[in-house]
Amino acid sequence: MRALRFIPALLLLACGLCRGEEKKSPEEAPLVSPKKSFSIISKHDEATGFIDKLQFAAGGNPGELVLPPHSYPGSYYISPDDRWILRLQQICAGYNEAILYHVEDNQRISEVMDFDKNAWRASDAVSSLKRSELEDTGVIRADWAVDSAAVTFRVIGKSADRSYRFNGSLVTYHIAKNSFTAKPLPDDPAPQKKRN
């Protein structure tokens, strides 16, 4: 019966509002935005890690922007109107963070400050387990609304106690309101294995 409770959450995640464009690894071809106004190109540099660049199709000044480098490759979800980029960035083993960028008319990008922290704050408000009680936390699976008015994603984590329960919330960021809403997801119906 618990498995049946989990089915609506899986369907919601599978259908989504409207999937954004995602890049899985830097070895793949450049990620082209839905309206083809820019591409995200990733290169690995031994000294600095993964360097991701936005290359604008129209050229102009600056024509190319370099995002902050990281030790791990990022995954990107671009809004259908090419105005927003959600970057899911692994920061160390078992942890990632969500970064939201706004692509401005002048080929500059700005970051929505404390995006990851505020997403977790919204999740904590509806979850039985709080972020401080979780390990291996992260944001996964983002879907953009067709009109680019909102992005929905799942924040997840594993309980830090020896029960190894998983917890997650479906979080939506509303662009115009600059606000988050969250819904709890049912516990993972699969039995959790105990570690020795």
Description:
By secondary structure, this protein is mainly beta. The chain has one domain. It is built from 2 helices and 12 strands; from the N terminus they run H-E-E-E-E-E-E-E-E-H-E-E-E-E. The chain has helices at residues 2-15, 115-126; strands at residues 31-32, 38-45, 49-56, 64-66, 74-78, 84-92, 95-103, 109-111, 134-144, 150-159, 166-174, 179-184. The strands form 3 sheets. Strands 1-2-3-4 form a 4-stranded antiparallel sheet, with no helix packed on it. Strand 2 and strand 3 (49-56) form a beta hairpin. The relative contact order is 0.16. Mean pLDDT is 77; it is low at 1-27 and 188-196.
What proportion strand? 35-45%
Task: Please give the oligomerization state of what you see.
Answer: single chain
**Total count of domains:** 1
How do the SSEs run, as a string of H and E?
A: HEEEEEEEEHEEEE
Mean pLDDT: 77
Task: Give a nutshell description of this structure.
This protein has 2 helices and 12 strands.
Topology:
Blueprint: H1 2-15, E1 31-32, E2 38-45, E3 49-56, E4 64-66, E5 74-78, E6 84-92, E7 95-103, E8 109-111, H2 115-126, E9 134-144, E10 150-159, E11 166-174, E12 179-184
Antiparallel strand pairs: 1-2, 2-3, 3-4, 5-6, 6-7, 7-8, 9-10, 10-11, 11-12
Provide key terms for this protein:
single chain; 196 residues; mainly beta; four-stranded antiparallel sheet; 12 strands; 13% helix; globular; disordered N terminus; disordered C terminus
